[in-house]
């Protein structure tokens, strides 16, 4: 399960965790997501370089921040829920 609630300094935050080592992926530029082209496709999240599954997900791999933009595009930044979440994320960023 790549999405977990992680305690960071006493605050609980949702974070992607690496499917290989289980550790949180702390920044969008330190993680990749990919999928195995099977039916149904299997999503994988992993640390760049140190936990890279290599040929298992090539060429279906992208930086984690690209994946987040895809999700944002899919679910729409215009909704009330999205705007509320954006404010909460801004609050978490300042902690
Ligand atoms: Zn890892």
Q: Would you mind describing this structure in some detail?
A:
The chain is globular and about 40 Å long. With 95 residues, the chain is α+β, with helices and mostly antiparallel strands. It has 2 helices and 5 strands. The model has no long low-confidence stretch (mean pLDDT 83). The strands form 2 sheets. A 3-stranded antiparallel sheet has the order 4-3-5. Strands 1-2 form a two-stranded antiparallel ribbon.
Amino- and carboxy-terminal Cα gap: 26 Å
Q: What's the helix count?
A: 2
Structural class: alpha+beta
Number of strands: 5
Estimated radius of gyration: 14 Å
Label the overall shape: globular
Low-confidence blocks of residues: none
Total tally of structural domains: 1
Task: For the largest sheet, list the strands in their spatial order.
Answer: 4-3-5
**Associated small molecules:** zinc ion
Mean pLDDT: 83
The biggest sheet, with number of strands, parallel, antiparallel or mixed sense and barrel status, is: 3 strands, antiparallel
Instruction: Please trace the helix and strand order, writing H or E for each element.
Output: EEEEEHH
């Amino acid at each position: 399960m790549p999405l977990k609630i992680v305690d960071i300094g006493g605050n609980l935050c949702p974070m992607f965790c690496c499917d290989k080592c289980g550790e949180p992926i702390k920044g969008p530029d330190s993680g990749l997501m990919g999928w195995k082209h099977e039916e149904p496709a299997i999503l994988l999240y992993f640390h760049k370089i140190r936990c890279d599954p290599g040929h298992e997900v090539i060429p279906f791999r992208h930086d984690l921040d690209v994946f987040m933009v895809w999700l944002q595009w899919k679910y729409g930044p215009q909704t009330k829920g999205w705007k509320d979440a954006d404010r909460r994320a801004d609050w978490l960023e300042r902690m």
